[in-house]
Amino acid sequence: MHIIIEGWRFLPHSYAIVNQFQLLEMLNRKHLKISHRDMPYVSKNWQPVTGLFPPTLEAALRNIPSPSSQQPADATLRMYAPFNLSCSTTKRTAVFGSTEWGIVTKSIINGMDVNSFAEAHSQGDTIIITPSNWSKNGLIRSGAEASRIVVVPHGVNPNIYHPLPTAERKTLRQKLGIDNYFVFLNVGVMCNSSQGVGRLLKAFATIVDHYPDTKLILKGRDAIFPSKDSIAKASKLSLTDAEMEKVQSRIIYVGNTLSFLELAQLYQSANAYVSPYLAEGFNLPILEAAACGLPTICTKGGPTDDFTNSDFALAIDSKLQTNHTNDGDTLHFVVPKQEHLIELMQTVIEKTLFLDKAREAGPKWVLQHFTWKQVVDKLLDALIPSVKLSRPTFEPIIL
Q: From the centroid of its chain, how far is CA 4?
């Protein structure tokens, strides 16, 4: 069987990250042929990045052949933006897409150059692959046909994202200068409107009053988004001058692009992961943190409900809200309760038994349900539902 993937590679963007891990897993499948067509990045400022993967895996990604008109394919999968719902030349066409704000916004529709999302989806038989039920509901709300939406979650490579033995973790924390601190971690583009960075900073300012030996690591993506500027704006909006002075020396900002192994070390060295988001399509860092044995704190009512449980995750009470924008969009999002966020951050500091439980339960849960092997199994069922493709019995080592 032959699948053509059209998408982004070699970029620290979620679409490219997911695409590359799926490609590497597909390369392990016997009797499956894949071709890849690189699609233009949406920003001219985005440049390809090398070193995200070890050299052998990067070479494997680069060596995937381009599609040839002489070799017919069975399915096409599109992993880029703006979405393109038009039919391909193959028997089956699938488009990856997610909705953070509970709808497909007008800015996205304009980028697609269509009159409406509903009209675009109704004009063919293209299926939409989306990573969460929250995102699926947003697509349906925007007029997509529910029968042609398939939820396929994201995954984790456990050879990269896993807990470190105690001695190795202690050495890593000493190297990073955080061995005497309780460390919270947050990874993302640092957008205040969707990822709640201002809420996190405000809560952290309260935490340090009672727990001075705490630090907060913020991992941004300066290569493709103005993450550092976003944090600065969120700080001015959310913190008083006194609060700013308290937290400045306790925040570690990492904006440069890290390899996935280096990123895993941030998870492995932290004590807890916290994400008081308002709008996400999936929130992959929560899953990566759980795989590394971290207790996670995340907003209740959003996409993370699909892949977390109380053995390792604490859910922040939230309220579903809508907002009408000047562009005519009606955004849907969950607003985490600030006092409950603070309470849960205190809980993970004080209740060491929960940390021990999460260190065992999180990785086990991910291995059982959310490896890239399991994700690609579901993806192939959607792309080629009548065919079961065999896979090597070994788990490739990605190190």
A: 23
Residues 241 and 379 placed together within one structural domain of the fold:
no
| Residue 397's pLDDT band (cuts 50, 70, 90) | very low
Angle at 13 between CA 331 and CA 55, to 5 degrees: 165
Antiparallel, parallel or unpaired: β 149-151 and 251-254: unpaired
Chain mean pLDDT for the chain: 94
| Nearest-angstrom CA–CA distance, 393 and 325 | 51
Count structural domains, the chain. Answer: 2
pLDDT at 396 over 60: no
Question: Does the pLDDT of residue 110 top 80, yes or no?
Answer: yes
Residue 385's pLDDT is what? 79
Question: For the segment 111-125, what is each residue's pLDDT rounded down to a tens digit?
Answer: 999 999 999 999 999
Residue pair 19/131 in contact (Cβ under 8 Å)? The answer is no
Same domain for 225 and 249: yes
Reply yes or no on whether the pLDDT at 94 is more than 50: yes
Amino acid 187 reads V
Note the pLDDT tens digit of each residue in 132-167.
Answer: 999 999 999 999 999 999 999 999 999 999 999 999
State the residue range of the domain holding 150: 2-155+371-383
Domain assignment of residue 74, yes or no: yes
Structure tokens at 116: 């409406």
**pLDDT band, very low/low/confident/very high, at 56 (cuts 50, 70, 90):** very high
Evaluate whether residue 82 is within a structural domain: yes
Amino acid letter for position 256? N
Instruction: Give the Cα separation of 368 and 387 in Å (integer).
Output: 23
Q: Are 49 and 257 in contact (CB under 8 A)?
A: yes
In sequence order, what are the residues at sequence separation of 6 or more whose Cβ sits closer than 8 angstroms to the Cβ of residue 394?
Answer: none
**How far are the Cα atoms of 80, 102, 140, 372, 375 from residue 133, in angstroms, in the given order?**
20, 10, 10, 19, 15
What is the DSSP secondary-structure string of 178-205? -TTSEEEEEES---HHHH-HHHHHHHHH
Strand partners, 217: 185, 252
Q: How many helices (H) and strands (E) does the chain have?
A: 15, 14
What pTM was estimated for this model as a whole? 0.95
| Euclidean distance between CA atoms 113 and 245, whole angstroms | 47
Q: Let me know whether 322 and 350 are in one domain.
A: yes
Say if residue 189 is in the same domain as residue 278. yes
